[in-house]
Each structure stands twice: as structure tokens, then as C-alpha cells.
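User: Run a structure prediction on this.
Assistant: Running it now.
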Amino acid sequence: MTDFVLYNAPQSTCSQRVRYSLHAKGLDFEEHKLDLFSGDQLKPEYLAINPNGVVPALVHDGTPIIDSAVILEYLEDVFPDRAPMRPEDPREMAKLRAMMRFVDEVPTPAIRVPSYNLAFLPHFQAMTEEDFQALCDSKPLRREFLMKMGRTGFPKADMDEALGRLRRGIERMAIWLAESGGPWIMGDKISLVDLAIMPVIVRMDDINLGSIWDDHPVISDWLDRIRATEPFRTTYYHGALLTEKYPHLARLREQKTVEA
């Protein structure tokens, strides 16, 4: 009997990937929701599981599996016949992994910049300079990212660069959908690359960046399709969207909707 414990955070995009895969495969798991602002991910007991101090981490029968892309592949290795999301042909497998590498190199890190500026910055601004520096120094993987943001937010040049990377991600996704014929990125079956990019697209829509794909309606169609799947509903429970967590973001979204 398998035993899964998932350490994650509701709004974490990387956590959302893994939750979707677990639900799609019908795997029962015990969910531990970490409060990232309280530093749960930096406590010794969690660092013993994931020394990188980030979420998610999946513990399977006592063995920690870390990094969301690694976890997605691990679940395919262990349960290849339960809602398979990798092609069998080695060439198609290589194509899938190259797509996932692009997603993790271009749009995934880019979405963090507007997310932090729009949602998380007020929290950091309320801290003293000393407390903020201590927070940065405690982050094994995110120290330089937070230092670059500072307590005033990422400058316009960084925001413009991030938005440019998100546009390139959208353009590449539109090409993939056109080449495969859809409805999913690799054709008629949902695959790991759909799961990999899903949280980026959902986050962009949630924080009013959906206009980036106005010229690519295939992205809107894809988003509608994945939202209609059963695993999506259980993955994005209430509180998983930034607008559900941060009232000021919800008000901003409503204001922009009225202005549009």
C-alpha cells in the first residue's frame, strides 16, 4: 500500500502541478499546507525533507522526492498505467522533456516577478530592513531573487523583461498547439507539459495578464479545457488563487474588469 505525504502551499505554482498529477492518477495523499510567509519551509523538520527550503516535496513510503518536475516524472515512473501523461515513443519523450525544460527556463521563473510585485510586496514592505535581510539570507534558493526585488519591488526593467519572457512562453505554447492539432499541447492526450505550464497560465489570468494571449485564442481555449477537467477542480480549491488570498488583488482585478 502506497503512502504519500505532500508538503506544499495552496498558491504555489509548483505545488499546483503536483496536486493535479496526484488527483489525475487517483492517488490518495496526506496534504500538509505550509505557510511560506511564516517560514514553515525553512524549519529544520522540513529542511530535513527538502534542503532547498521550497515547496513542494512529496514523501512516498518515507522517501522524499523534491522538485516539481522531478515529482511529475517520478509519478509517471511509479504509476505508468494510471492516467499516463508521457508518450511511449522515445523521440516523443525527448520532445516532451525539451518542452518542459523550456517551460521551466522561460515562463515559470518569469511569472514570479509580477506575482511578487503585485501580491507579496506589501508583506515585505511591512518588515524592517533587518528582518527583510534576515529573510533573504534564510532562503537557500531564493536569496538573490529577493535581494534583487528588495522592499521597493522589482523595477520596471525587470517587470518588462518578465513580461517579455511570458509573451515568448505564450507564443511557443501557441506553436505547440498548432503543430500537434490539439486539444492538448502534444495532441489528443493531456501530458506533463500541460501540467507544467498550467499554473503559469492560471496565474497570468488571475493577476490580469491574460491580455498577453489576446492574439492567440488557442490559449484561451486550452485554459477553458483544462479548467473543465476534474483534477483541476480539486487542485484549485478555494485559496489556491492569489486573488482569493489577497483582497487587494481581487479589488484590482474587479477595477480593471470594469475599466475594460
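The chain is about 60% helix and 5% strand.
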